[in-house]
Every structure is written in structure tokens, then in C-alpha cells.
Amino acid sequence: MKRIALFRIWIIVTMFARFIIRLYAFSRKQQQGVATTEEYEALMLKLAREYKRNALRLEGLLIKLGQFLSIRADLLPPAVLNELSELVDRVPTSGWDKSRAILEAEWGVPYTQVVKDVGIDAVASASIGEVYGATLLENGKRVAIKIQRPNIEKIIRTDFRAMRIVTSMLKRTSLAKSTDLDSLYRQMIFVIGDELNFQTELKNALYFKAKYADNPDVYIPDYHEHLCTNRVLTMDWVDARRITDLAFLKENEIDRSALAERLFTLAAEQLLFGGQFHADPHPGNVQIRADGTIILLDFGMVGQTTAQDMATIRNILQAFISLDYDSIVDGLEDLRFLLPTANKQNIRQALEKAVTFYLETDIDTVDTRLIEKVLQDIQLLVKNEPIQLPAEFAFFGRAASTLLGILQILDPKIDLFTLGKPIVIEWLEEDGTTLQNRYVKTGINYAKKLLNVPPLLDNYLKEPTRKRLSEQAMFQRNLESKELLHRQTFNAIVMLLGLLVGLLGYIRPDEWLFWSGGVVSVLAYFNWRRLGRKVRHVARQDFRV
């Protein structure tokens, strides 16, 4: 067994060593200006195919890592994502004989004393466990039995040792400057270690079962706890199909747009309001019944956001709206996006330069070459700054990006801005302060800096007589302004996230991620300016009273 473990470590380490050497050689070509995007994508596709072959042969941690990378559209080209996506649900089965031995060892009796009509072909096979159908003798219920793969715990532990070596290798590359590799390694051990203990998955499932007990649109199967162990889970069988099975949706006359809206609301509530969220919501784990009920399965990978982190994000957005760049950078540091060696002043300048450009330039008529020049300047400014994506937020991003992919399949024309607005507003007001009161404190500063409202506003607020005469008009104006500010807040969120994504894309470096973040920011700004004109129009109406 020791010889097999050493062989696994050798294969994994040498594979990653080859990857590092090839990517380093390509980066040198990039620096010399002789490398193309097509060459980069071809190289990444070649590496992805080699990785997939080894993952399907060795299984274990390589499968889990490949599944994680398969949804990282922010890091990898589409062809690579497609190649790695086969690792999500095409893992070879171990076979019923091996699974039966584990089942009987865990239950302590021959399986025929507990269940009958067992389907010896696995209905699902993943990196950690396999699922078989059966019928309980005690009550005739049809159940799904999830059984851990043979020797998977020893395999994963061996792979952790191999990845420890790989992490040490990566520390000698430029990646170490922008990524807390030790933190990522610890988070990987923590999350996957939890997956190896099915009792933890059971606990997570019961948490979500209680959370959605009163929600008729969501169903989580009942678990038979007396038949659940560290290596076996037994739950009610669910007749359902993947939520992306469009033929099934059409056959059962399920409105795809309405389904997408329900799924978006479900996911947004999990991700924004703290507590636990499903961190592996791929189509195999999010299914749909013929009556339109959403089924959530497999809670082995569950992420968690703290109330403190979410409050910090709210503060960052508030600081962004009031152009308080120092508070933005402090918030990023509090969220662990900045490594200790980061130059906060450089990052502040990069943010200020980008936002100032947006505010002072008419994007509708500006030459695209000017936009490119500004983005290049920002690139140079933050080139050497160690910005990272904290490990805990990586799983947040994994869940969000996976769900976004599902939503695009269900409804390619889905309007995430409109759907997200009420949820985001509720989230922003979670600390007990309403948006109206929040904006009373920063409204004048915000208006001066972002919307260029005439200086008469200050005089107007100081004249009680005029204010009393215009009370009725002000009431209507407040209603309109609040709605516009809500919409601007959402666009500010999108713009900030786009900027952060662009900065992260440069540090990686990842040209696709950098430009996509920039494009998102610009598009959000278009809408921001349009709403700004409406706010100015409403503000001027008050002065005509």
C-alpha cells in the first residue's frame, strides 16, 4: 500500500511540475510579445486533457480539483471548462461488489436483512461516493443509498500529501505573490475532509431541510438516520430530473423563466444573508420534479459566510457610492483580499483613477482606444500588488458561477438586475438601517460627487419656508429618488464587482477575466449615468416649486 501511495504522489507531483514548466515558458513568450491568445488556449486545452486522463485514472482529489476548476470561467478558457466538465458526473463506478462490502461493514449485517430490490448498477457515481437504489424491508419505501468509494479516505489523504508538495513548488512561482497558497491548501483540507465524513453531510442536509420546511417550492429528501454512518447515507428516493433537462421541462409544461426566477431567489437568499449555502449546486445536485418542485441534493460541500463579512461588504458598497476610497481599500483588507505586503496606496489610486475616468468621461462618445489606455495604466499601477481571492470566497464564487450557468440555460434572456434589486435592497437594509436614512447621511456628498446636482441644493435645504411650500412635491420627489437610488445602488454593486474582477484578472494574470471585468464595469456605468440624469431631473423639479 505504501508503494501505491508513493506512486500516486509521484504521478501528481510530476504532472504539476510539467504544467508549471510549460506555463512558465509560455509566460516568458508573453513577456517577449511573441505569444498569442490562441496559443494560450491551445496550451491550456492540452494541459486540461492530460489532467483529465490522470484524474480518471487516479480519481481521488484530482477529481474534486477538476470539478472545481470546471466551473471557473474567471480563470480558464471555455474549451478547457468543457474538457474538465466531464469530471463532474462521468466518474467510473467501483462496482456493486466493492460497495456492498462497505455497506455491510457499516450496517453490521447482510444488506438483504435491511433492503431488497437493490439495483446493482449505480445511478450516480462521483468522486467520493456512489448511489444505488433499493427498497426498505421495514416499510417498503424506495430509498437511495450513497456509499463511500473503496479506500477513498486513504487515497484523499495521500493526495493531500502530494498537493502539499505541489503547494511548495507553487510558492516559488509568481502565483505566490498574489495568492495565499497555504490558506487555499488548508481550506481544501477542511472542505474535502468534511465530505469524507457522511455524518457531516447528514448534519448539513438536516440544516437545509429545516430551513426550507415551510417552502413548498423546495424539497429535500428525508434521511433515515438509523441507516446513516460515516460512510453510508440512506435517504428517500426522489423521482426527478436535472433542472437543465429542457425536454423534461417542456414535457411537463414548466415555465423556464419562472423556474429561473425561483432558483435565483433561492440562491441569492443563501448567498447574501449569511449562514450556510450549498457550495456544489451543479445540475446533478439541483433537480426538478414533474410538478415544478426544486430538489436539492448532496450537501457534502457546504460553504458559510459570516455576518461580519457580509456587513463589511455592505460598508464597502456604501463607501463606493460616497467615493470613500480609503474605506473601500480598508474593507478589502478586512475581507482578506489584500495580502500583508500589499501597497494600499497604489490600490487606492487604481480604484480612484478608474472611477474618476468613469465620472468625468462621456462613455457614450469616448474613443474605445482611450478606455483601453486607461485600463492599461491601471494594469501597470497594480502590476505588483498582491491581491488574492480568499479561500472561503472561492467557494462562494464557485456556487454563484455554477448557478449563473444554470440560469443562463433555463432563461438566456433573464434580467438579473431586475430580479436582484429587491433582494439586494433587503440585504443592504439587514443591519436595521433603511436605505432612506442611510442616504440622508451621505446624500449631499453623493449628489455633489456622482450626480453633479447644482449647488442650489445646499441653499434649498437651508430655507424652511420654501421647504414647507414644497412639502407635497418633496414627498413625491422622495418616492422617485428612493427608487432611483435603489437602482443606482445595484449598478454600483455591479460596477465595483467588475472592477475587482478586472484587478484580479490582471494579477492572475488572466486577460479574459481582466477584460470581462472591465466590460461589466463600463456597462454598469452606462446605466448609472442614465439613472443619474433622471435623478438630476427630479432634483431640479424641486427647485421649480
Automatic annotation (TrEMBL):
<protein>
    <submittedName>
        <fullName>AarF/UbiB family protein</fullName>
    </submittedName>
</protein>
<dbReference type="InterPro" id="IPR050154">
    <property type="entry name" value="UbiB_kinase"/>
</dbReference>
<feature type="domain" description="Protein kinase">
    <location>
        <begin position="117"/>
        <end position="485"/>
    </location>
</feature>
<keyword id="KW-1133">Transmembrane helix</keyword>
<dbReference type="InterPro" id="IPR011009">
    <property type="entry name" value="Kinase-like_dom_sf"/>
</dbReference>
<keyword id="KW-0812">Transmembrane</keyword>
<feature type="transmembrane region" description="Helical">
    <location>
        <begin position="6"/>
        <end position="25"/>
    </location>
</feature>
<feature type="transmembrane region" description="Helical">
    <location>
        <begin position="489"/>
        <end position="506"/>
    </location>
</feature>
<feature type="transmembrane region" description="Helical">
    <location>
        <begin position="512"/>
        <end position="528"/>
    </location>
</feature>
<dbReference type="InterPro" id="IPR004147">
    <property type="entry name" value="ABC1_dom"/>
</dbReference>
<dbReference type="Pfam" id="PF03109">
    <property type="entry name" value="ABC1"/>
</dbReference>
<keyword id="KW-0472">Membrane</keyword>
<comment type="similarity">
    <text>Belongs to the protein kinase superfamily. ADCK protein kinase family.</text>
</comment>
<dbReference type="InterPro" id="IPR000719">
    <property type="entry name" value="Prot_kinase_dom"/>
</dbReference>
